[in-house]
Fold:
Amino acid sequence: MPDETRSFEDFRPGEVIPLGTKTVSRDEIVAFARVYDPQPMHLDDAAARETMLGGLGASGWHTIGMFMRLLCDNLLLKSHSLGSPGIDRVRWLRPVRPGDVLTAVTEVVETRASRSRPGLGIVQFRSTVTNAAGEPVMTMENPILFACRETAR
Structure:
């Protein structure tokens, strides 16, 4: 059976890759916040109503974590991904609320072979996470490194 795992050569600029959906619960918003971002707007309904969010909302870092899970499950674990040198830009555009159903997609913006490391390619992505109303709640731009087909064998 041929290897169906994606290599660098399998990405095309303009390609939009659906990454799936995730329903967000109040319990997980609070649990994440308790450990990683214990600000009132992420922990307590009454306190959150008094903040600029106007109600309980997920930490932006929690939103990135949920996005990362969708990215892993629906792209990275099905590819010859070699990690990422970082994130170029991230924007949290709207609060993520308990009960929100998030949908994530990523678009291939650019591909280029590495000049310094033969057998490695760099894919620049622009990702968007939307709520059930289709409103963007987060955008992110970042490169991801992938092995070229011959290197991955």
Notes: The chain has one domain: 8-152. The helical segments are 26-36, 40-43, 45-49, 60-74, 149-152. The chain is about 25% helix and 30% strand. The chain has a mean pLDDT of 95.
